[in-house]
Amino acid sequence: MAAGDRLRVKRRFAGSSAAYMHHGIDIGDGTVVHARPDHAGSLLAGGRVVRTSLAEFSSGRDVWKTHEPPPAFPPETIVARSLQHVGRDGYHPVINNCEHFATWCATGERSSRQVDIVLSRIARVVTRTTVAVSTRVAAGATEQIVVRTVVGTTVRVGLRTIVPVAIVAEGVALATEWSAHQAGRSAADSRSAGESAGLATSTIACALAGIAGGPLGIVAGALAGAALWTGGSCVTAMAGQFARRIASR
Question: How many CB atoms lie within 10 A of CB 2?
Fold first, then answer.
C-alpha cells in the first residue's frame, strides 16, 4: 500500500452480523483520510471526513486496496483532494458515504458500488414482478389448457407464487452479489454471480410449485421460473440502455 491508494476494510453494521466495506485514502505516512458517521450506531445522525491512524481505520482487521473504478488522478493529487476535505461534514450512508468520498478523491465522480448493488436489486424486484404479472395475464389461459390436456390437471404458476419467487430470488441474488463484492471480485463478476444465483433460485422455486402437476408440471414450473428471471433481466437491461441514451443527449 502506498500514498493515494484507496483502502477498504470489512466492518459490520451495529448490532448485526451483516458486513460492509469501509473505504478511505492512504496518505502514505501511516494515516488514512475517510468519511465516517459521528456515531457508529446511528448512521443517519451525520458524520464527517476525518484523518486517523491506519490502525484506527483497520480496527485490527485486514486491509485491502480498491482498484475499481480506475483512478483518474495521480497519487499525489488523490492525497491532496482527500486532505482538503478533512473536517467536512454531510455524511450520509446512502448518498454521501465513505465509498462515495474515496471514489471521488480518486476519480472525480461520487459513486458507491455497495449502494448501487442494493438499489439496483430493489429496482429489479419491481421490474421482475411487473413482467411476471403482465406475462401471466397475457398467457395464463393458454398455459392452463396445454397443461390440463397433457397431464389431466392444471399447473398454476399464479401471482401467489410469482411475487414471492421474484422477491426471494432477488434477495438471493443481492446476498450473492454483495458477498462477491465483499470478497474483492470485480463489479462484472459479482453481478454475474448474483444473476446466476437468482436464476437458479427462481427456476427451482417455480419447479417446486409445479410438483402437483407431475413431471411435466415440474418442467413447466422450471421454465416459467427461468422465463420470469430472464425476462426481468432483459427488461432491466433495455431500460438501463434507454436511460443512458437519454442522459447522453
Answer: 8
